[in-house]
Amino acid sequence: MLDVGFVGWRGMVGSVLLERMREEGDFAGLAPGFYSTSSPGGPGPTDLGFETGRLGDAHDVAALARHDVIVTCQGGDYTKAVHPRLRAVGWNGYWIDAASALRMEPGTVLVLDPVNADVIAEGLASGRRDFCGANCTVSILLMAFAGLFRAGLVEWMTSMTYQAASGAGAAHVRELAAQMAAIGEAVQGPLADPATTALAVDRSVREVLAADGFPTDRFGAPLAASLLPWIDRPIGDGQSREEGKAFEEGNKILGIVGPKNPDPIPIDGICVRVGSMRCHAHAVTVKLREDRPVDEIEALIAGAHEWVRVVENTPEATLAGLTPAAVSGRLDIAVGRIRKLRMGGEYLTAFSVGDQLLWGAAEPLRRMLGILRSHLGKVRPATEAEAA
Ligand code: HSE
Hints:
- The protein is α/β, with parallel strands linked by helices.
- It contains 13 helices and 15 strands.
- The strands form 3 sheets. It has a 7-stranded parallel β-sheet with strand order 3-2-1-4-5-7-6. Strands 11-8-12-15-14-13 form a 6-stranded mixed β-sheet.
- The model has no long low-confidence stretch (mean pLDDT about 95).
- The structure holds L-homoserine.
- L-homoserine binds near residues 137, 231, 242 and 360.
């Protein structure tokens, strides 16, 4: 039985991870232990269908070191505090992490197996022990356009993002909803009167956005009825850290950087926070290495893996299937608006939407745990239905 310690399972990503593991029957044949940074000794998760016991102390290195695998969604500060201590006591287990702290360490493998199963397999074969999920926006971008990268067609790519509140964290989701509620309250009266003009409604919205007490502690500015074209801190040259990750992590996921292949693919753009709840979207421009017809491009995108879904470039199909509202809570990555730009046959544009809590965060970790079980020969026993 694979012995797995879970840390940070109560947060948004951790909760989605446990939910997905329960849905997929992943706990069968697993010996899980649950840890907490804030309430060790308290009760473990109660909705998994089995007894989870008391919570361990997530800073107790001796207890953590008894596990074959640690899965953490606790965040970068926790990783920085605990991972070096665990390695220092000689723990040789597998560390699967949602946070960014270790992602760009040379010994870390970034996990997104529908895109980079080969990179993961090579990492396992060469004895790597640290496996991290990549930035959510980057993971969804690569899930969407894996077929083009795999075919060697991408000379460069711009990725203009439309990122959901959930990417910023649970408190931000609450703040966006609170902003929406404040706006709703402000326009209730004007909307009740059919004679109110649109400009008067707009004035009510503008007034509430600027009012004292409008909740902006987390985002620093109104997001509802607006957008925020800066995510994370500046890293120089006018770029945000979020924007830098597309290039750094994107190339690392693809296994492009390294001695065998020293030329990374330029991927860059502007990252924008929008009022979507949990789906990240991208408008991309791709400079193709050669002109290929759109139907061939669509087939390459659609054929990359089983979760990508190409949406017909019509208004009806786009509004029905290429929106955060249509994709939230689903594992499919929708890619549409695929067409050539006026600049020429080598210039492709497209739009993608994916649930950042699923493929952007929890799902690559869940699947890495499964890959690890197969690798270590600790595959879960077949369920009765599978065995029948
Ligand atoms: N940094 C991302 C965001 C979260 O702010 O949306 C996922 O890595």
